[in-house]
């Protein structure tokens, strides 16, 4: 396994149902799969670290990866729950969200500008771009992928892609400190009376990426999704009678966790290609050729 070092701030964005953006600062990442414990110091409160640029300079100097996940539910600007999502090598920056599920084109760029300004960063400080590649409806996912690709290409930096359901499941496992062998069903509302889903098993506890995907990702009616110990996401929230969501669990994909997980996998040499997971054809299709009239 190739091991690479990385250090810098990470911009994260998600937009499957609404656009949301956040920043994670990474310091001294080695790519060692055993070197990302979450049992270290908790994140500083935002009001205790108002100058994100100064903190970033003190911690790791210049450079930042960007994570643009455009395919997740609105994050509502909430902090990730607990200290379990970071180690001493990580701390969180600002987050922002636009509660406008169908306005990705209008909201994504201003959100990127907002969180960069709050963190005291410029786009030229970014060192990589990580994007949520779905599954999600065509329009929102396409806008996010195009924005992330253009940003990475323009800056001449790496582009990383990761499944939004993987991020949701990883965040759930960290938040609940779930034991080994427990199953997690991560879901997203796919509209058309369907959901996107994937099922996971917890193989390692209290680590960033300790899950194995058992099934999915796929799309279909909520009633066809498999039973699991823990069920989370907007799909379960939309169809509670069929899926019985775990009460009080996150219904969204955290953009900061997306950035961390994509970086973690990239440094381990795993596939982080930013190919979209549409899973079905778009709502709008080219018209069929006109039939020639019979004489």
Describe this entry's structure for a reader.
The chain is built from seven helices and ten strands. By secondary structure, it is α/β, with parallel strands linked by helices. The protein has two domains: 6-163 and 252-267, ATPase, nucleotide binding domain (Nucleotidyltransferase, domain 5), CATH 3.30.420; 167-243, Nucleotidyltransferase, domain 5 (2-Layer Sandwich), CATH 3.30.420. The strands form two sheets. The protein has a six-stranded mixed β-sheet with strand order 4-2-1-3-5-6, with helices on both faces. A four-stranded mixed β-sheet has the order 9-8-7-10. A hairpin with a 4-residue loop joins strand 1 (6-14) and strand 2 (19-29). Helix 2 (104-119) packs across helix 3. The longest helix has 18 residues, at 138-155.
CATH topology of the largest domain: Nucleotidyltransferase, domain 5
What is the name of the CATH superfamily of the largest domain? ATPase, nucleotide binding domain
Mean pLDDT: 77
Structural class by secondary-structure content: alpha/beta
Shape call: globular
User: How many helices?
Assistant: 7
Distance between the termini: 68 Å
Strands in their spatial order, largest beta sheet:
4-2-1-3-5-6
Strand content: 25-35%
Q: Which CATH top level class of the largest domain fits?
A: Alpha Beta
Please give the CATH architecture of the largest domain. 2-Layer Sandwich
């Amino acid at each position: 396994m190739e091991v690479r070092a990385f250090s810098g701030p990470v911009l994260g964005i998600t937009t499957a149902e609404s656009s949301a953006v956040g920043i994670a600062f990474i310091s001294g990442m080695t790519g060692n799969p055993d070197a990302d414990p979450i049992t270290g110091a908790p994140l500083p409160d935002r009001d205790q670290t108002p100058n994100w640029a100064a903190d970033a300079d003190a911690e790791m100097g210049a450079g930042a990866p960007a994570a643009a996940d455009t395919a997740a539910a609105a994050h509502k600007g909430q902090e990730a729950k607990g200290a379990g999502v970071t180690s001493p090598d990580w701390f969180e920056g600002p987050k922002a969200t636009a509660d406008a599920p169908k306005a990705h084109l209008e909201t994504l760029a201003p959100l990127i500008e907002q969180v960069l300004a709050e963190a005291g960063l410029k786009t030229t400080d970014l060192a990589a771009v990580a994007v949520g590649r779905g599954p999600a409806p065509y329009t929102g996912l396409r806008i996010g992928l195009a924005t992330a690709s253009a940003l990475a290409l323009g800056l001449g930096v790496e582009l990383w892609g990761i499944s939004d359901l993987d991020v949701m499941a990883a965040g759930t496992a960290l938040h609940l400190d779930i034991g080994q062998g427990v199953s997690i069903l991560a879901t997203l509302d796919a509209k058309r009376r369907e959901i996107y889903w994937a099922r996971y098993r917890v193989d390692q506890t209290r680590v960033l990426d300790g899950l194995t995907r058992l099934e999915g990702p796929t799309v279909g009616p909520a009633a066809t999704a498999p039973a699991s110990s823990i069920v989370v996401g907007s799909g379960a929230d939309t169809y509670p009678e069929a899926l019985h969501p775990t009460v009080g669990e996150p219904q969204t994909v955290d953009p900061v966790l997306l950035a961390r997980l994509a970086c973690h996998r990239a440094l381990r040499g795993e596939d982080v290609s930013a190919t979209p997971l549409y899973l079905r054809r778009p709502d709008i299709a080219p018209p069929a050729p006109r039939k020639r009239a019979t004489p």
